[in-house]
């Protein structure tokens, strides 16, 4: 393991899609950047996703605005980095089973559209046409957003990492952070490096990393399992849209199979009971999938904030910035998150008011808006 340089302008801790986006955009802006990753690049939350980037996030126009900006960056990604993300439009269908969900959509639609989101309310029958597996009798209506794309998350990580290195950033894998001193010295098994600014983008380990610098980021770790099931003969040849049920059940086409997600067993729930619960929701909402076996696909951990919205900002008392708590939505926000952190480092204003992304919203007086 080669030694680290003695100092740098910025140390980015975390080598997932968020950390690599930050490192790339800092390096391209001429900022001396060293990225430290405890394992392999993209081995944390970035490898746990359903592989979809989208612009619509129900009830949260701020996050949607970050996703809209990020989606535009992904469309230009191949030209910028030379990496093909395999973007394939599949659309997003959010099912509503209660009148208050429909009303919430109506109340926020104008704000979503002002944020640049293409989304409309569709009837249950229209939802059934968009995804023929949906039992339209079980829903009242749905939100339909065509701007959702299947993609290759690993290509996003590799593309940003390669561009970061080409711009002069140093990326070190298998280099866990073991300590952070008050003067900005970061300790690892490969040695220590002093940074003018530290950026925590450590995903599920963000809280632990921040605590080393005496900073509190209120993130928790949420484990998820992704499951696979067979595609019924009645399914259309075209890819099914990403479809989300209020129970948190979600499905989408995955090659010639169907990807199914609904968290992981609760602490007091056996895996068999959880699988039965998933199967029940699956069979109720998508009758053609009733009785189909569910196979293990992959699992991982997500970094989750108390309100499901990311923390992107700076600590008020030291040069410590953070981008964490993306709650499974980091892939959709990585380009915009990198841009915000870059602007904070350079003391530039971002394209939108990012005060609501600070930890201050969850920690009274512990952080100020970034």
TrEMBL record:
GO terms for cellular component: cytoplasm. Residues 9-342 form the FAD dependent oxidoreductase domain. One of its GO terms (molecular function) is oxidoreductase activity. Keywords: Oxidoreductase. Pfam families: DAO (PF01266). This is FAD-dependent oxidoreductase. It comes from Streptomyces glebosus. The lineage of its organism: Bacteria, Bacillati, Actinomycetota, Actinomycetes, Kitasatosporales.
């Amino acid at each position: 393991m080669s030694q680290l340089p003695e100092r740098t302008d910025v140390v980015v801790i975390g080598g997932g899609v968020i950390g690599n986006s930050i490192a790339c955009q800092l390096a391209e802006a001429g900022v001396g950047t060293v990225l430290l990753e405890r394992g392999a690049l993209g081995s944390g939350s970035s490898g746990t996703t359903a592989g979809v980037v989208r612009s619509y996030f129900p009830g949260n126009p701020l996050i949607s605005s970050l996703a809209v900006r990020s989606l535009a960056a992904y469309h230009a990604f191949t030209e910028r980095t030379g990496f093909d993300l395999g973007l394939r439009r599949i659309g997003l269908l959010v099912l509503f089973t209660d009148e208050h969900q429909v009303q919430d959509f109506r109340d926020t639609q104008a704000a979503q559209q002002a944020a640049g989101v293409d989304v409309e309310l569709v009837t249950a029958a229209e939802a059934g046409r968009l995804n023929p597996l949906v039992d339209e009798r079980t829903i009242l209506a749905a939100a339909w957003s065509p701007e959702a794309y299947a993609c290759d998350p690993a290509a996003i990580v590799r593309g940003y990492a390669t561009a970061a290195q080409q711009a002069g950033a140093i990326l070190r894998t298998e280099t866990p952070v073991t300590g952070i001193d008050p003067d900005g010295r970061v300790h690892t098994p490969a040695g220590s490096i002093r940074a003018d600014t530290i950026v925590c983008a450590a995903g599920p380990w963000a809280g632990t990393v921040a605590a080393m610098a005496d900073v509190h980021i209120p993130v928790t770790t949420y484990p998820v399992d992704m499951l696979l099931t067979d595609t019924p003969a009645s399914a259309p040849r075209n890819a099914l849209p990403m479809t989300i049920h209020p129970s948190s059940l979600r499905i989408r086409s995955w090659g010639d199979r169907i990807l199914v997600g609904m968290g992981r067993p609760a602490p007091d729930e056996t895996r068999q009971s959880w699988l039965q619960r998933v199967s029940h929701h699956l069979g109720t909402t998508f009758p053609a999938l009733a009785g189909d076996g569910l196979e293990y696909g992959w699992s991982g951990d997500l970094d989750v904030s108390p309100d499901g919205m990311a923390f992107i900002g700076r600590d008020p008392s030291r040069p410590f910035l953070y981008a964490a708590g993306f709650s499974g939505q980091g892939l959709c926000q990585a380009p915009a998150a990198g841009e915000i952190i870059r602007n904070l480092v350079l003391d530039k204003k971002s394209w939108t008011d990012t005060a609501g992304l600070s930890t201050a919203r969850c920690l009274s007086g512990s952080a100020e808006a970034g």
